[in-house]
Design goal:
The structure holds two protein chains of two kinds.
Chain A: H1 4-13, E1 18-19, H2 20-30, H3 39-52, E2 55-63, E3 66-73, H4 75-100
Antiparallel strand pairs in A: 1-3, 2-3
Helix pairs in contact in A: 1-2
Chain B: H1 3-11, H2 16-34, H3 43-63, E1 66-67, H4 70-100, H5 113-120, H6 122-131, H7 135-155, H8 166-187, E2 192-193, H9 196-215, H10 229-240, H11 243-252, H12 254-282, H13 286-291, H14 293-327
Classes of the chains: A alpha+beta, B mainly alpha.
């Protein structure tokens, strides 16, 4: 099971290739401001995800004399993300059932 | 100092290879995040960078799975194993011939434990370098260490400075060799493997070497006692008994053969060392030792044959598997 930051990073690059700062912002938005990754942590995670085959480097651009690298999700990354979604959904469903069977509390 | 330079100063602590590939994009992200109105590195960012540096160093050492350089590792283990056998054979022959010609061991310059111990510590170092993919350096260290050990055998004296008797010397070489090189070879077979295991092996090998060396320090002032033949028999039995099992496993896992060969070599050589020790210490007359030379060589050859065969089979199988993995 992947951890929350990894889940959010994969989600952030799922629609289109994105660069470091773009991923940081997406993760923040996706998590409703709860998860704010720092650049060091982000690149350690990106490095690992590339090594594991979930991400690949899409392209590199020079913007204002600085190097910007875009990461793209792979089929393997999509599979990892789907697997996590399934697990989370099944956990959510199970938790809802547990809560709804508690006497006196109605689940909205 | 600009913000960019401050960031780069901290990033200098990251692993070099990582920096070469990622420093510029990381700096870009850091600067983009900082915006244009800031000139100081935030403490939280600084802490995060330091933490990331530690994570990446740990990962580079042992963490992430790697596609290993199988043939180089096999070469490393093989050359070390073969060199070890050469050293053993040289040691045996010299000992027999010195006795045979009635020379006193003490007439050679004594090379004691203080010289031998740092040499033996080179094994874990060679392994460590192998894990960082400095294969050539690793191979040179393994090879030169073994050669120096062979020189120690040739030059050592039997009485006052019996720095390590044959079996002890082989334990010094053998145990780290078993734990480190055998594991390295088994692990570095072209599969995706966790390097954590090699690190663990190294961490076992280093204190083990130190303990063994420390335990033998008393030989500096106290000569070792003669050995008995029964000890040799017991050692030989231990070495030969698992051979069929190893061969059976080897059919499915070729690397086990190589690991087993490396495991058996120092042990059988240790047994041989004891045999020769008992022969030469109990029968110190020149003529007798000469007469026993063919007998000892026959025993040596017989004892080393299975380990040599195991190792060669393992090397061949590992190389074959690595080539197949490359072709895929």
């Amino acid at each position: 099971m992947i951890r929350e930051p990894t889940f959010l990073i994969l989600s952030a690059v799922a629609p289109r290739p994105s660069h470091g700062y773009g991923i940081l912002k997406s993760v923040e938005v996706l998590s409703d401001g709860r998860v704010r990754l720092r650049p060091g942590t982000l690149y350690a995670a990106l490095d690992r995800l590339v090594a594991e085959g979930s991400l690949v480097i899409d392209s590199e651009q020079v913007v204002d004399g600085r190097l910007r690298r875009y990461y793209r999700i792979t089929d393997e990354g999509v599979a990892v993300l789907n697997e996590s979604i399934k697990r989370l959904e099944s956990n959510i469903a199970a938790a809802k059932v547990q809560l709804s069977s508690r006497p006196g509390i109605e689940f909205a | 100092m600009t913000l960019e330079r401050r960031y780069r100063r901290t990033i200098r602590l990251f692993p070099r290879t990582w920096r070469e590939q990622n420093e510029d994009v990381l700096v870009d992200t850091l600067l983009e995040q900082a915006g244009s109105d800031r000139n100081q590195v935030r403490v939280a960012d600084q802490v995060d960078l330091l933490r990331t540096a530690a994570v990446l160093h740990w990962r580079a050492l042992c963490g992430s799975p790697v596609r290993a350089d199988a043939s180089a590792s096999v070469l490393l283990a093989a050359s070390a194993g073969l060199a070890l056998m050469t050293a053993t054979a040289l040691g045996l022959l010299v000992r027999l011939w010195v006795i045979g010609f009635g020379l006193r061991y003490g007439s050679f310059p004594g090379i004691d434990l203080l010289v031998a111990t740092p040499l033996l510590a080179m094994w874990p170092l060679a392994l460590l370098l192998a894990t960082t993919r400095r294969t050539r350096l690793s191979l040179s260290i393994a090879g030169s260490t073994t050669m120096l050990l062979a020189v120690c055998y040739l030059a050592r004296s039997n009485r006052a400075f019996n720095f390590v008797t044959m079996d002890h010397a082989l334990l010094y070489i053998g145990l780290p060799l078993i734990v480190t090189l055998a594991l390295a070879t088994t692990v570095y077979s072209g599969h995706q493997v966790d390097r954590r295991w090699i690190t663990v092996a190294g961490l076992v090998a280093i204190p083990l070497t130190a303990v063994l060396a420390g335990g033998d320090l008393h030989h500096l002032w106290q000569p070792p006692k003669p050995y008995d033949s029964p000890t040799f028999t017991i050692v030989a039995a231990f070495v030969l008994a698992p051979t069929p099992v190893i061969l059976a496993i080897g059919i499915f896992r070729p690397q086990v053969l190589l690991a087993a060969g490396l495991l058996c070599t120092p042990l059988s050589a240790a047994g041989l060392g004891q045999l020769i020790d008992s022969l030469t210490i109990h029968n110190p007359r020149p003529g007798q030792a000469i007469a026993e030379t063919p007998q000892a060589i026959a025993v040596a050859a017989g004892s080393l044959l299975p380990t040599t065969a195991l190792m060669l089979a393992g090397i061949a199988a590992s190389l074959h598997q690595a080539r197949r993995a490359d072709a895929r």
